[in-house]
Every structure is written in C-alpha cells, then in structure tokens.
C-alpha cells in the first residue's frame, strides 16, 4: 500500500512539476527572460509600455559620465560575432596573441571617447554554423548586447521586438550628420516601410566574381576580354573541358567550371553559378511592383535549370563534384597542385579571396595569373551586374524596458565609434596596432625572402602607416585585415591609412564597378520557421533536373505539389504585410 | 490502523515484517550510499526529460515563447510527407544495416576463430578494428574521394580501366543515384563496424569448451560440420542478444547518413535525425518545439521497439533484457 502511495506521489510530483514549469513559461508570455549574464530581454517593442524594468541590466552604472545624451553609463559590453572579426578569434596561439592586444586597445580607444573605462567581452560563434549558434543562444535566453547578423537573419528577428530600432540613432550619428557617410543607400535601404532600422551595416555586402585561370585561356587560345555573352562563356567551358588547357598533353582530363554547389546555401543563392542562373532568382522575391512572388516557379528558373542540365549532365563542362562540394573542396580542387581533373573557372568572393586564390596557385607552383571576368551580357542586361549580397549588420538587443538610454549608449559607444574615421575605425579595419599595423618608423621587412616571390616592404618614416607581417606566418604573409574592408566601408577612414594597389583593393574595385544590390530577403513569420521545407523541395527539384537529367516541368510540378501551399501562405503574409 | 505484514523465512518461520521506517533506519548505510546515485540519476536522466513539454509548445528564439499550442506540432508532423519518408528510411536503413553488420561480424568471427596462426589472427583483428575508430567525417571524405563522379574518382577510373565503363559512358555518380545510395551506405557501415562487432562474438567463441570440438573430431566431423553443429549453436544466444539490444537503438541514426547524403537521394536517405537537423538549423528562426515533437515521436517508437524486443527476448531466451 505504502509502495503504491509512494509511486503515485512521485508520479504526481513529476507531472505537476512538468505542468507548472510549462505554465510558468506560458504565464511569462515571454515578457521577461534573464540570461545567465544578468542580461535580459523583455516583451516585444509593441508592448514596451507594459514591460517592467529588468532587475539587472548589462552595464553597471558606476557613477560615471553618461554616454552622449543617453544618460546611461555603459561600463560592460557583451559582443557576439561570427568569423568576420579576425582580431578577436582565439583558435590558434597567433590569434590569441592578436586578440589579447586588440581588445585592450579597442577598450582604451572607446573609453577615451566616452570618458570612462569600458570592458568589452567578445564571444566568437562558429562561422559556418553561426545561424545555429545564435539560435541556440537566443532560445536559452543568453543575449549579447550587440552582435553581428546576416541581413536575412535580421529580417527574421526584426519583428520579434528583440532588436532595437536604431533609425533615430543612425540619423543623428556624427558620421552621418557630418557628411562623412559616402554610401548612404546601404543602411537607408535596410529600413522597413515604417522607417525602422534594426541593423547597422558598416560596409556593403560584397559578392562573387568569376575567376578564370589566365594560363588556361592562353593555352586554348582565348582572350578573356572577348568573353561577353553566355555563348562565349560556354564556348570557353567547352574548350577547357575538351582540349588541354593545363598543358599536360592530355585532352579532356579537365573541366570548365567548378562551384560549391549548384545553388548557394544562403541569399543571394545564385552567386556561385551566376552565369547559369542569369536573370533567374530561385527564391521568394519582391517584384518591381512591390508584389512578392516565388522566383523558383518562373520561366527564367526553368530556362536556368535547362542551362545547368546541359552544362552538368549533358556536356559535363561542370565538374560533377560541384553538386556535393563545399567551398573548401571546390577551392582546393581549383588551385590544387594536381591540375588534371581541375577546372578553369571558379566563381568566388571578391576582395580578400582574389588574393587568396592567387597566393594558393603560386604556393602550388602553378601559373598564378587570374583573369576577373566581367558580368556576361545576360547578367548585365537583367540584373545590371553581379549581385552584391545584403550586407551583414550589427544589431543591438533591446532589453524591452521602454527606456532607450542603454541601447543609445551602446550605439554611441560601439557602433558610432566604429565609423569615427580615425583611431577606432583603424582598429576595426587593420586590427591590433603594433602587431598587425604600425605608424612607427622602421627599416621595413622582407617577405618570402630567397624565393621568386620575395618582396621588400619599407623602409617607413615615422607616422607612415603600414601593415606588419602576419603574426601566424611572419615570413610569408602580411597580416590580414580585421573586420572592415576600407574599400567596402560606408564611411571611409579620414586619416589616410590605406593599403592602395594591393590585390584585395584591385578586386574590390572590380566588383564595385560591376555590382548591383541583391534582392531583399523576405521577412515573414512562416518563412522564418518553414523555409527549410522550401529549400529542401527546391534542392530536390534542382538535383532531379541537373544531376539526374530529369524533366524540368515534372520537377517543377513536384515542387509545387510539395510546398506550393506553403509558398502561397508565405506570399500572402508578405503581400498582406506590405 | 496499520496491519503488519507477515513474511515466511527460508526456514519456514513466520515473522512479522518490520515497519518501513524501521527498515530504512536499519539499512541507513545503504540508503546513504544510494542517495548520491539517486540524485545524480534524477538530475542527469529525469530532469532533462521535462523538456518533453516543449513538444506541445511554440518555442522560438525571442520574446513571447515558449507557449502552449497543444498538438499542433504533431499534426504538422503527421501531415508532412518528408517526415514519413524519413521515418520509413530510418527503419529500413537501420534494420538492414543491423542485420548485415551482425551477419558480417559473425562470419568474420568464425573465420578468425578458425585461423591457426595466433599472430595472423591478432594482426587481422587489429586491422579490422581500426575503421571503427575513424570519425564518420573522415570516413565520408575517404569514400567521397573514392566514389567521386569526376575524372579523379578512383572507382570510376577502375571501372573505366577494366572496360566496364566505355569511352562514351558517363562516370557514375554513386552517391547521387537513389538506386545505389543504400547499398553503398551498407557497404561503408560493414567496412567500418564489422571489426568492432566481432569482439563480443570472439569472446563467446573463446568460451566454447574445447572438449566439444575434440568430441566432434572423435566423431569424424569435418571443419564445416564443427562450425555448423558446435560453433553456431554456441553463438546463437549471443547473436540474438546483440540483435535485440541493437534493435532498440535503430532510430538513433544521424551522423553516418548526414555525412553521406545529398538532396538527390533524400527519397532513400533522409532519416529522422537529418530531417530534424534541417528543420532546426537550416532556418533563420527555428521552432524548437517542432524538433522536440519529432524527437519525442522517435523516442516513443524507440520505447515500443524496446518493449517488443523485451517480449521477443523472453520468448527466445526465457528472460527479458530490461
């Protein structure tokens, strides 16, 4: 009897505890959630007035001078970043050394501006799984104060009340009012229809450029400047596939093109295979008339699938590994020492990666001249150029207490200073002073000494800006830039610290001369949660047509049958909201 | 009014059972020793189970969640063709893989047991154990290279050299062809796990009395007959135990599929684990409630399988496994 009673009591306790825990969450209604850092996020922006102030906010008010006009003293800041802030990474000893130099320098520089000490804690998420990383952190209510998001991620969170509307702060920021802001359209374009701005993009998004091995062009008797149309482009791929572009004496052991997937894993989706997709945009997109529609269910997409099928399945000018290859595999196959089985054309990111592909070809003792192919006519005439992806943004987490002073203080201390044009922007651009760059007089240095790539840097006069050798590879490489690319930034440096004429700059200029902004990502409750179903159905359709040589119409019909109603629901949400 | 229960001792003496309080007090040393384990199990095994409630909630990042939505996730799950496809694939891939790897392990164990040279036997054992210690990511990289459809693919090259693929034939995209993906998956699993699976069978074989073989020799049994009439019956119980124990885990399939599958073969390769992964981590703002609901369903099916196995074990071996 007692046994039964004990069992029943334990079972009841378990059930009740489950229910109570659940009910507790329901009762909260998401109004308050304290994280383990003492940070907290309250109800969404629409119900700010009903929210109660959090018990502990991020920063302690230590009786210091408040930032700007916010009336709030910010002494601690928790920052979450992906792998694009090179100077705070901590995976290798060299990275740790740089991080330990960079963060105190940044804290000191910001502290100088705001008039008191500030402690900045950088948390670096896994770059390739940042989305997943952020999701896990958010769902366990571990919110940073300020963080990096992709534009798409910001769109999915902007309606939740988690992100602070920084439109007013942005409009009143010194870099904006002083006229130093050069690329005004980037952030203006991010404002929603009500003028809210939930993220600040310090640079434009960047995109991909089509790289062609110059030696291969020479070997098949082609001139890159003559490749103007898709027919020219395809002819080049055929020659690379059927002739002997690598000069090993064997015809047909190479491919025309390699890519990391036949479609990208994030917007703008088509940038690794732009010449094949051309005017198609295989995702939900807003038309010129403002109406959202599914770009995958269009004739342009069907035509693009036929082109890809012809190239991949029929003529085999695309390396078949492209279907399953990740970016690393595609890159390494393109510049690998063994060129048999490699490809002549590879579309990849502009700027830093232009230098990387050249360096790696040279490292493998291959001809390292790379031709940057301008957009073919079909791309130029439809989009106007390569697609410049939506810029990654910095967002500020709104604590939902109805008082913007903390958020304004974060903007003033962290984001506004990032664009100061001088000391802090230099840190964000080139990293730690004394380790990655310097203005002190020196005799200079030599990289790759004793090789045919030997290059002498310097001497440098006092006050002359120059980058220093990489901490990780001091004998062979210059240090890499930190977070902001001086050529992509919306508000340039005013102190003249620039590395002009290097390969990154050449490539960035080439891209900016040939790019247009990518379509904006949709922002819908259903899309943010169910996009995986659509992506799955789309990828299956692409595989059926391109990889297995299936019929386009049949694949499209299957796509519609699988996710047609879901797509309709999302389009209704989007078009109703607009 | 409590009535004390009478118990009969082994010597047939009838005594009154002491009260529970008294019994606990008398055995307080044992209870104190048991307490840390009990607390550990509660915290580590039972407390996380409270997360089951999220299967009935919308649970997304951001304010306003989690909140109860009842059985909505289950309704969505049961309406999704992709879920049922993944469920069927999970069962097929797991069960076939289990049968094949168990069969291969038994076969290899018997062959190893028959080897005369101890050195050769030990060396071979070590060699076949090694793949087990390689991560699935490494295994996938190796087989992706071997099975590559490009000019550099080793298997396609061999087929071409042997004349099986003619000059006009395309290279075979093994991992992107639905009819080939499952056999390749099974082969890779057999290669990786057979060696490890032999350990338990070799242990059983080493426990067979040599007298049985000597008796068989005296009776003039051939080597095959000794395997058939001595070794196999001795192994039968172990084979059934291994099968039953592993059958309970068949739904926990993820990594081996995740590193080898792609969108061209979702129809034959997508399993519940990979389906949950994409639903959770391929979207900007996942609903963890849905992932939990799918996971809960998987756990319930797993639980049912354990109970079925237990019943099967009782019938076959006369005792259960739980």
**What general form of chain A does the structure show?**
globular
Helices and strands of chain B, in N-to-C order?
A: EEHHEEHHHHHHHHHHHH
What's the overall geometry of chain B?
flat
Beta-strand content bin of chain A: 5-15%
Structural class of chain A: alpha/beta
CATH architecture of the largest domain in chain B: Orthogonal Bundle
Distance between the termini of chain B: 37 Å
CATH class of one domain in chain A: Alpha Beta
Any low-confidence stretches of chain B, pLDDT <50, length ≥5? none
Please report the first level of CATH classification, the CATH class of the largest domain in chain B.
Mainly Alpha
Which oligomerization state do the chains in this entry correspond to? heterodimer
Quick summary:
The complex is a heterodimer of chains A (578) and B (322). Chain A is α/β, with parallel strands linked by helices and 578 residues long.
Structural summary, described in words:
- The complex is a heterodimer of chains A (578) and B (322).
- With 578 residues, chain A is of the alpha/beta class.
- Among the domains of chain A are: 32-205 and 391-429, D-Maltodextrin-Binding Protein, domain 2; 208-388, 3-Layer(aba) Sandwich (D-Maltodextrin-Binding Protein, domain 2).
- Chain A has 19 helices and 18 strands.
- A 4-stranded mixed beta sheet of chain A has the order 4-3-5-13. Chain A has a 4-stranded mixed beta sheet with strand order 7-10-6-11. A two-stranded antiparallel ribbon of chain A has the order 1-2.
- In chain A, strand 1 and strand 2 (40-42) form a beta hairpin.
- Chain A starts with a helix and ends with a helix.
- The model of chain A is unreliable at 13-64 (pLDDT under 50).
- With 322 residues, chain B is mainly α.
- In chain B, strands 1-2 form a two-stranded antiparallel ribbon. A two-stranded antiparallel sheet of chain B has the order 3-4.
- In chain B, strand 3 (57-58) and strand 4 (67-68) form a beta hairpin.
- In chain B, helix 8 crosses helix 10 and helix 13 (272-281) runs antiparallel to helix 14.
- At the A-B interface, helix 1, helix 3, helix 4 and helix 18 of A face strand 4 and helix 13 of B.
């Amino acid at each position: 009897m007692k046994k039964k009673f004990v069992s029943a009591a334990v079972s009841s306790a378990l059930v009740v505890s489950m229910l109570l825990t659940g009910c507790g969450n329901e009762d909260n209604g998401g109004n308050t959630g304290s994280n383990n850092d003492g940070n907290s996020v309250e109800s969404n922006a629409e119900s700010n007035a009903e929210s109660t102030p959090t018990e502990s906010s991020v920063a302690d008010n230590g009786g210091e001078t408040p930032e700007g006009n916010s009336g709030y003293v910010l002494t601690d800041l928790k920052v979450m970043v992906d792998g694009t802030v090179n100077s705070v990474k901590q995976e290798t000893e060299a990275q740790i050394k740089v991080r330990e130099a960079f963060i105190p320098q940044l804290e000191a520089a910001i502290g100088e501006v705001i008039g008191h000490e500030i402690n900045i804690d950088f948390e670096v998420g896994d770059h390739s799984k940042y989305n997943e990383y952020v999701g896990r952190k958010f769902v366990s209510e571990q919110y940073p104060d300020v963080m990096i998001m992709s534009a798409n991620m910001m769109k999915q969170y902007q309606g939740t009340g988690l992100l602070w509307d920084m439109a007013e702060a942005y409009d009143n920021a010194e870099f904006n009012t002083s006229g130093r802001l050069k690329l005004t359209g980037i952030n203006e374009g991010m404002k929603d229809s009500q003028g809210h701005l939930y993220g600040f993009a310090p640079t434009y998004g960047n995109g991909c450029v089509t790289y062609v091995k110059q030696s291969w062009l020479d070997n098949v008797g082609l001139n890159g400047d003559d490749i103007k149309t898709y027919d020219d482009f395809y002819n080049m791929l055929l020659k690379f596939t059927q002739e002997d572009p690598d000069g090993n004496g064997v015809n047909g052991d190479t491919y025309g093109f390699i890519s990391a997937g036949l479609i990208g894993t994030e917007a703008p989706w088509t940038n690794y295979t732009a010449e094949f997709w051309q005017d198609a945009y295989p995702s939900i997109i807003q038309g010129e008339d403002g109406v959202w529609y599914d770009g995958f269910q269009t004739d342009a997409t069907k035509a693009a699938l036929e082109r890809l099928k012809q190239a991949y399945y029929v003529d085999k000018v695309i390396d078949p590994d492209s279907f399953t290859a990740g970016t690393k595999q595609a890159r390494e196959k393109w510049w690998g020492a063994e060129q048999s089985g490699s490809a002549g054309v590879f579309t990849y990111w502009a700027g830093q990666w232009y230098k990387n592909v050249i360096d790696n070809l040279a490292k493998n003792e291959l001809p390292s001249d790379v031709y940057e192919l301008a957009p073919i006519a079909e791309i130029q005439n439809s989009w106007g150029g390569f697609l410049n992806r939506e810029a990654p943004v910095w967002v500020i987490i709104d604590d939902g207490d109805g008082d913007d002073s903390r958020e304004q203080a974060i903007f003033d201390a962290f984001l506004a200073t990032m664009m100061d044009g001088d000391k802090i922007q230099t840190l964000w651009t080139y990293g730690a002073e004394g380790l990655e760059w310097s203005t002190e007089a020196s005799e200079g240095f030599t990289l790759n000494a004793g090789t045919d790539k030997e290059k002498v840097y310097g001497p440098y006069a006092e006050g002359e800006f120059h980058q220093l050798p990489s901490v990780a590879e001091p004998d062979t490489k210059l240090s890499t830039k930190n977070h902001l690319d001086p050529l992509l930034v919306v508000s340039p440096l005013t102190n003249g610290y620039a590395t002009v004429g290097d390969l990154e700059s050449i490539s960035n200029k080439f891209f900016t001369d040939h790019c247009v902004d990518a379509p904006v990502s949709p922002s819908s409750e259903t899309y943010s949660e169910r996009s995986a179903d659509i992506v799955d159905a789309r990828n299956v359709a692409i595989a059926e047509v391109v990889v297995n040589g299936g019929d386009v119409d049949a694949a499209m019909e299957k796509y519609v049958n699988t996710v047609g109603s879901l797509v309709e629901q999302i389009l209704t949400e989007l078009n109703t909201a607009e | 009014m409590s009535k004390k229960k009478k118990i009969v001792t082994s010597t047939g003496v009838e005594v009154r059972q002491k009260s529970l309080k008294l019994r606990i007090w008398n055995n307080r040393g044992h209870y104190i020793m048991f307490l840390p384990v009990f607390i550990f199990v509660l915290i580590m095994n039972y407390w996380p189970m409270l997360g089951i409630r999220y299967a009935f909630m919308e649970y997304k990042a951001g304010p306003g969640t989690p909140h109860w939505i009842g059985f909505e996730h289950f309704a969505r799950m049961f309406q999704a063709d992709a879920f049922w496809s993944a469920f069927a694939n999970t069962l097929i891939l797991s069960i076939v893989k289990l049968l094949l790897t168990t069969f291969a392990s038994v076969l290899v164990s018997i062959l190893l047991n028959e080897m005369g040279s101890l050195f050769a036997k030990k060396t071979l054992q070590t060699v076949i154990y090694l793949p087990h210690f390689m991560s699935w990511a490494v295994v996938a990289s190796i087989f992706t290279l071997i099975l590559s459809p490009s000019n550099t693919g080793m298997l396609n090259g061999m087929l071409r050299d042997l004349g099986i693929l003619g000059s006009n034939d395309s290279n075979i995209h093994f991992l992107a062809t639905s009819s080939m993906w499952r056999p390749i998956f099974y082969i890779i699993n057999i290669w990786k796990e057979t060696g490890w699976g032999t350990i338990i069978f070799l242990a059983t074989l080493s426990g067979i009395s040599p007298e049985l073989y000597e008796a068989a020799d005296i009776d003039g049994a051939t080597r095959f007959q000794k395997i058939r009439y001595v070794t196999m019956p001795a192994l039968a119980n172990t084979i059934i135990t291994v099968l039953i124990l592993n059958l309970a885990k068949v739904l926990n399939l993820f990594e081996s599929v995740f590193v080898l599958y792609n969108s061209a073969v979702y129809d034959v390769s997508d399993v519940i684990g990979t389906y949950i992964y994409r639903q959770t981590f391929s979207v900007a703002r996942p609903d963890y409630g849905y992932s939990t609901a799918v996971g809960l369903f998987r756990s319930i099916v797993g639980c049912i399988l354990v109970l079925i196995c237990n019943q099967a074990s009782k019938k076959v071996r006369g005792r259960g496994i739980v």
